[in-house]
User: Which sequence fits this backbone?
């Protein structure tokens, strides 16, 4: 999830301005956007509007929706048209969204509220607010086999475990550092970047403990994370403009690749074997091709917009969605294969 930071430990993550109230929608093709050698182009820009800083984006490819965290609420857009479908309100300091499709539920991590909001996927109605023991929940992950939600807490260096069915906290897992983005492999493991330790921690879901803590050096400040499940590869995007590839079973370092500046998001498309990092300061997306499980090549970069550091990938259309500011207007950039 990469994310807006409400907490003062990373002031540059608090992005955004106050915009005109309401959400005027517009989509248009901008021929001036650079294509380069990335194989992608910015196809459209959705003028979403509304007030609030932004953070992580999450794609629901089943319901064709895009969830956009906006400081006090989550905006829900039609994934194909950009039309505003509704909002999940009262989510103070929201960072991320996790989806549990088989339960028809979604979960938001509310950093300022030390809480998790539970909502219904089909109606977007709020079902419950779970006050948690952890402080500043940031990344949030649903592990389908265990039917549990994991909220990774930036101020208490732990993960809160919530039963997704009962919406009750059932435990916590201490972490050896400050968690950033995390993911589940669906096979009993969670992977989480530890931003202050430059490490990748592996959680054993059944045991409820950290099984491994692998160094990512010379990575500095790992944030965005992605997974190539079939080849057992974890990708950690780092603030010193490198991306580290790690064997998810052994912890072995596989590769190290150059990316843009101020990365906060990463994604992997298993169909096209393309790996992406969204870079806010260099205003681009680095596109990398996985030629094999052990060999990677930088294909090129796609020009986006200053501050477009978080990203979501639609696995069906292979499109990328990036939030950014254009003049006085909050927009979602839609990047598509050429």
Assistant:
């Amino acid at each position: 999830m990469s994310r807006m930071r409400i907490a003062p430990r990373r002031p540059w993550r608090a992005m955004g301005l106050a915009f005109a109230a309401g959400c005027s929608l517009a989509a248009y093709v901008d021929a001036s956007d650079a294509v380069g050698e990335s194989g992608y182009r910015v196809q459209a820009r959705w003028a979403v509007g509304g007030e609030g800083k932004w953070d992580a984006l999450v794609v629901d490819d089943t319901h064709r929706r895009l969830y956009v965290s906006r400081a006090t609420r989550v905006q829900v857009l039609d994934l194909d048209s950009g039309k505003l479908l509704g909002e999940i309100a009262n989510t103070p300091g929201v960072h991320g969204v996790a989806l549990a499709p088989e339960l028809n539920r979604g979960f938001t991590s509310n950093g300022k509220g030390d809480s998790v909001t539970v909502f219904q996927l089909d109606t977007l109605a709020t079902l419950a607010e779970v006050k948690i023991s952890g402080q500043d929940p940031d990344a949030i992950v649903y592990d389908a086999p265990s039917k549990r939600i994991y909220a990774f807490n930036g101020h208490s260096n732990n993960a809160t475990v919530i039963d997704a069915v009962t919406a009750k906290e059932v435990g916590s897992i201490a972490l050896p550092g400050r968690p950033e983005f995390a993911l589940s492999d669906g096979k009993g493991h969670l992977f989480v970047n530890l931003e202050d330790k430059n490490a990748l921690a592996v959680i054993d879901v059944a045991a409820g403990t950290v099984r491994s803590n692998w160094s990512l050096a010379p990575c500095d400040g790992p944030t965005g994370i992605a997974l190539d499940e079939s080849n057992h590869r974890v990708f950690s995007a780092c603030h010193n403009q490198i991306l580290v590839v790690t064997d998810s079973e052994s912890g072995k370092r596989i590769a190290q690749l150059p990316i843009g500046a101020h990365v906060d998001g990463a994604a992997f498309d298993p169909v096209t074997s393309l790996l992406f990092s969204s870079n806010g300061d260099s205003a681009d997306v680095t596109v990398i091709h996985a030629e094999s499980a052990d060999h990677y090549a930088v294909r090129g970069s796609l020009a986006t917009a200053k501050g477009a550091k978080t990203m979501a990938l639609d696995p069906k259309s292979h499109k990328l969605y990036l939030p950014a500011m254009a003049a006085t207007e909050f927009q979602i950039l839609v990047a598509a294969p050429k």
User: Anything to note?
Assistant: The chain has one domain: 11-337. Residues 1-36 have pLDDT under 50 and may be disordered.
